[in-house]
Amino acid sequence: VTIYALVVLLGLRLEQGACQHYLHIRPAPSDNLPLVDLIEHPDPIFDPKEKDLNETLLRNLMGGHFDPNFMAVSLPEDRLGVDDLAELDLLLRQRPSGAMPSEIKGLEFYDGLQPGKKHRLSKKLRRKLQMWLWSQTFCPVLYTWNDLGSRFWPRYVKVGSCYSKRSCSVPEGMVCKPAKSVHLTILRWRCQRRGGQRCTWIPIQYPIISECKCSC
Questions:
Q1: Which terminus of the chain has fewer CB atoms gathered within 10 Å of its CB, N or C?
Q2: Which of 22, 67, 36 is nearest to 176 (CA)?
Q3: 64-95, pLDDT tens digit by residue?
Q4: pTM of the prediction?
């Protein structure tokens, strides 16, 4: 594996050093990411009362925006913790899913072990090297349920994250970072004090990470 890793490095003509050498493999993410956590006022006077949490009425307000795959009224049993996410990420890295990135699929590998000679590798070996490189640079989105608190409905939303505790580039130096996001429509309990406190549920767009990429 070590020898073939060296072949990969020769084939890609990568150098150990600055991040710009890697950018042609994985582009940098959007400047609008990562997503910023919401900061809520701690005073419970702004919390909805039990009469404001009628599920039937709130579902009617949501209309067709309620997505059971990403929203839940109570905490789902299939929630994942931090340790579980790390284990899941390692598993996904060993067996990437989906279509192989075109940047990796189009790579050509040569046997550069003999000075002055280049021999194209066999299709079988080329495929193995592509799969190995893909498993090292693969950046899946890892989902877990997040409790937004009583001022949001549904209270639980499945949010995405990028595992960044290990490098995703060859050579090392880059990590998986958020690259794209999508928006879910949920309800937000909003209170206004002008002319006496008045509170109501309003629809808002809540962003979640939908794609991770290897970046500096």
A1: N
A2: 22
A3: 999 999 999 998 876 655 555 555 655 555 56
A4: 0.66
